[in-house]
Amino acid sequence: MPGTDDILDKIRYLAQFTQRPVKLSQLFEFGRSPTSNVLMTAAQFLHQELPVRLAHRVAELESLPCGLSEMPSVRSVRGMYIDSISDLNQLARPDTTESELAFTHSIEAIKRRHNNVVSIMAKGIQELKQMRGSEALDPRIQAFLDRFYLSRIGVRMLIGQHISLHDPPRPGFAGLISQRCSPREMIRRAMESARSLCVERYGCAPELGVYGRAELVFTYISSHLHHMLFELLKNSLRAVVERHGSREESLPRVRVVIAEGEEDVTIKISDEGGGIPRSGIDRIWTYLYSTAPPPSDGFEIEHENDFSAPMAGLGYGLPLSRLYARYFGGDLQILSMEGFGTDAYLHLKRLATTEENVPRKLL
Question: Where does the chain have alpha helices with state H?
Fold first, then answer.
């Protein structure tokens, strides 16, 4: 079994290689017919690619600004990544059905190991804030977190897609990718979850109106879309109730418009929740910034996904949603009228040739 120095040398070697983004269309085509040859090819790609992506993150975790690398929680995350690279390093390149299946079980365990990385990193930022105050909001740290979480989204997507190819097939799906993802259906599901939380917290919730291309379907990762919509709708419901009070009949509805362009599918979520001051718009993309009080200390930010269950207070929802949108070439924009309300524009690339957005190597 290799020692610590050997693994660190291996990580430094792997971090020199460029990460190789894949296209949504490639993932979809592989997932449509997961034969043993397809599974083998995908596993061999992951066997080579995953250690490189994880090594890039370890290299960054070793040299973060403001002393963040020395925070106990950040060191814990770095240890997780090193353990995962060590596990992958001990796996032979899959070349039989049995070795491919063993490899799949191994990367599934690695995915589980990293389930709570978002909450642990958040704790690391809090540790830095307690020690150095406003230095925790250093723009270099924010840029690192964007790269770190964007990479995490990609790694979990690639692993999750490969694991799902071993599951019983679902009509219209290629692994995690839906060929006929319906924004209207995702809006309905996300709204049900968001309204349930809102009613639990405030005793009421605004109604929803959906307009535009309600019949639209396109190729996309439906779970990603649901997560983003849930976060945006949750924010809108909270803002409306806190501005207009808890009498349900007096609450203005939240309006959602679905638009289809040649390149993008755009979903606009509009509320009358009072808006955000212009001076605060930039801060909404800052990790750990929230206008709501934090949830109880015992709450974990995430378990199976990167999104929080409480109504508000964690400060990760919007920046993570923007990263999920950007992962396959989309974006999230927030426009606000202080004193009236907020419009969120979720842009999603409809072209299946779009590549993953993977963090670039730092110079």
Answer: 4-14, 24-32, 36-61, 72-89, 97-113, 117-132, 139-164, 183-202, 222-244, 317-327
Beta bridge pairs of residue 255: 209, 270
Active-site residue, 227 included? yes
Residues 49, 60, 231, 272: which is the catalytic one? 231
How would you write the pLDDT of the chain (363 residues) with one tens digit per residue?
566 778 999 999 999 999 999 988 889 888 888 999 999 999 999 999 999 999 999 999 998 999 999 999 999 999 999 999 999 999 999 999 999 999 999 999 999 999 999 989 988 988 988 888 776 678 899 999 999 999 999 999 999 999 999 999 899 999 999 999 999 999 999 999 999 999 999 999 999 999 999 999 999 999 999 999 999 999 999 999 999 987 877 899 999 999 999 889 999 999 999 999 998 888 899 886 655 555 544 444 444 556 554 444 456 889 999 999 999 999 999 999 999 999 999 999 986 667 888 886 543
Q: Choose the catalytic residue: 234, 268, 347, 349.
A: 234
Known active-site residue 231: yes
Q: Which of 308, 209, 216 is nearest to 253 (CA)?
A: 209
0.85 surpassed by pTM: yes
Closest C-alpha to 121, from 93, 163, 183, 79: 79
Catalytic: which of 235, 302, 349, 356? 235
- Tell me the DSSP string of 96-117: SHHHHHHHHHHHHHHHHHTTTH
Q: What CATH code is assigned to 4-173?
A: 1.20.140.20
Residue ranges of the chain that CATH labels 3.30.565.10: 177-349
Q: What angle do CA 28, 153, 198 make, to 5 degrees?
A: 105
Region 177-349: CATH code: 3.30.565.10
What residue ranges of the chain are covered by domains with CATH 1.20.140.20?
Answer: 4-173
Q: State yes or no: is 234 an active-site residue.
A: yes
Known active-site residue 235: yes
